[in-house]
Amino acid sequence: MKLIPPALAIVGRPNVGKSTLFNRLAGKSLAIIDDRPGVTRDRREARGRIGELELRLVDTAGYEDSDASLEARMRVQIEVALDEADICVFLINGREGVTVMDERFANVLRRLDKPVILAVNKCEGSKGESGALEAWKLGMEEPVPISAAHGEGISDLYARLTHVLKTARIRPEAEPEEEGSGCEKDIPMRLAVAGRPNVGKSTLINALIGKDRLITGPEAGLTRDAIAVEWEWGDQRVRLHDTAGLRKRGKTDGRLERMSAGETLRAIRFAEGGMLLVDAERPFEKQDLAIADRVVGEGRGLVTLITKWDLIRDKPAMLVRLREKFDRLLPQVKGAPLISVSSVSGHGLETIMPAVKALHQNWDAKVKTRDLNDWLMEMVQRHPPPAVDGRRIKLRYISQTKARPPTFVMMASRASYLPESYKRYLINGLRESFDLPGVPIRLIVKGQNNPYAKSGIGRRA
Asked: Mind listing the domains of the chain with CATH numbers?
């Protein structure tokens, strides 16, 4: 039986240190932290530990009692987190004391039929003492003074959590393991959803999973953190990483956007595949190609989705033009899937995951050494390597050293003289002969050491 730890939601108004406490309990820097309020927008989840307690941590946006569009959408995500949590940590700022917004949110939490722990953050030194005393006026249980940034008071928070969990009889849930558990299919496939700002990445993920998990809207730059969303497609577990939109490096504005871009690149680096979203009305701009090159450079398979397809009139002709442009601009992933989609109408959504699955199999492909060397002999007979300075380059043998992506090492005489054009000829041959469309293929050419090179024996006069 597999145990699911209790869910702990960290809530409070903006800029009280929720993400700092989240990172502290998670044991690593997952959420972006900045001094300005309102940095966190989507709720982020992670496994964490405090003392001997295993927890499912949920970081939330700052609670604001406002009817503004964005704040209202963020408040909905907070309500979902509260509804799914087993226990809540209500965080206030000890340096500022109890505010009107804290009192309003405390009234909301009192109506919950769930245990709530009041924690007063930023209580390091003497400046936070008055705020810890003032927290009593909220009429909740004894406040716990902590400093999430410095780790002070975490042991007291652990003691309170342990007491509350025992009192409320909240225990880890048991999830029955299905047959075949522990095999590779139970490991989630990690996919990074990337693209320029405002191309519909969060909207696409919501449409795929069938619920409003992520905040969406017409404003560009809504997503800041790289948010992981768990999903099941048939019997395949999938982890979709929603990322912030990437702009040109010269147009990146401020420290916060640079941190968001860093999170996006990190998500691409640790993913097993990438979905590149391209705006159908402005397809394959320079930044689209830069993002695609980044995904391919990390050795990941690439599925390109042409979004907002419902806005295009002459769809067949447009798709032909886009396919030709894609193959011309991105020859390193020749044959990669190019799918037209619309998150609003649902067009093309059912074709995304089959294409991703097929691409993932190609990315994990392994070819026998004997088949590779038979293929190499045929390629050399068809088109021999060019002679350099009157001397032939001899290709001796080839083998695959690893998959993910398919990587091949070829031994050759005078390896450093082999032209890049001939390497491309071999890579295209590998792609066509062994049916590996759409994935980056790495070919490493190595030379053999000449034992007589130092003494000059065997050199040409």
From this structure: 2-175 (3.40.50.300), 185-363 (3.40.50.300), 369-447 (3.30.300.20)
